[in-house]
Amino acid sequence: MRRKLAAGNWKMNGTTEALQELSALQATHSDPNVDILICPPATLIAAAAQTCQGGPVMIGGQDSHEKSDGAHTGDISAAMLRDAGAKAVILGHSERRAGHHETSEDVRAKARTAQAAGLMTVICLGESLGQREATNTLDIIGAQLSLSVPDSSTGENLVVAYEPIWAIGSGMTPTADQIGEVHDFIRTRLESRFGPGVGRSVRLLYGGSVKPDNAAEIFSISNVDGALVGGASLTNADFSPIIEALEKA
Ligand code: 13P
After folding, report:
1. Whole-number Å distance between alpha carbons of 141 and 238
2. According to CATH, what is the number of the domain 5-248?
């Protein structure tokens, strides 16, 4: 059985006062039957890990470099994330693919290094609206999946997040059939590449405008093991009902 995972991506939001939201989240979910991951900005990781120490909330980074150290101004290594208390890292988010020209090959190299450093990697895939309208979405997702996921992946160190670019921050979500089609496809591909044991143990998250009012429906879709949530993960008031919907799913 795969453990469910509610993951929050704070993106470039939050200063020290946002740690109050983490304390509230810890207090609300003292014994969850789902895993909870919050990925705050890098400046808050150490303090967030401290705040969440001994509790149910795991802390993660939003990116890490493919090299383990060296002359890479402004970048963060996987070992640095670990050292700060992170247990996971988001890699290949569409905002980094677009804004930092990251290719799937870059994402794979980063993921290999992060997994070797002991981090759980949350690898993001997703098509643009133009791609969905012009081509076969499954071809896009299939190519991103095979190129972005390293051979070193296991059920413990890999989570795949399907985040259609057009659904991120837009209030638009795909239909349940559209989400199910992509998630079933990712599951089948993982099973054929890694074998049924590993392929069935990798958790698949949906991301893109997940809110308290649509979470239950999304979590009822086959092969959706949780969500990667942006805006609605910033406050305990919004994120807690999403976690509760996942606990009930
Ligand atoms: P929103 O939930 O704000 O649409 O963001 C989704 C996302 O990009 C999470 O990584």
Report:
1. 29
2. 3.20.20.70
Cβ atoms < 10 Å from Cβ of 71: 6
Nearest 5°: CA angle at 24, between 18 and 28?
A: 150
CA of 228 to the centre of ligand 1 (A): 7
- The 8-class DSSP code of residue 119 comes to P
Spatial neighbors of 156 by CB under 8 A, at least 6 apart, are 120, 201
Mean model confidence pLDDT for the chain:
96
Token pair for 192 = 């054929």
Q: Average pLDDT in the 179-189 region?
A: 98
Ligand 1 atom 1: residue of nearest CA: 230
Minimum CA distance residue for ligand 1 atom 7: 230
Catalytic residue among 93, 102, 127, 181: 93
Report domain extents, the chain: 5-248
CA dihedral defined by 52, 2, 240, 57, rounded to 10 degrees?
Answer: 0
Arithmetic mean of pLDDT, 166-189: 97
What pLDDT, in 10s, does the model give residues 66-104?
A: 999 999 999 999 999 999 999 999 999 999 999 999 999
Question: Rounded to an integer, what distance in angstroms lies between the CA atom of residue 101 and that of residue 170?
Answer: 22
Atom of ligand 1 nearest to the CA of 207: 6
Distance between CA atoms of residues 209 and 229, nearest Å: 7
Compute the distance from residue 165 Cα to the ligand 1 centre, in Å: 9
Give the CB-side neighbour count of residue 186, counting CA atoms within 13 A.
33
Residue pair 74/42 in contact (Cβ under 8 Å)? The answer is no
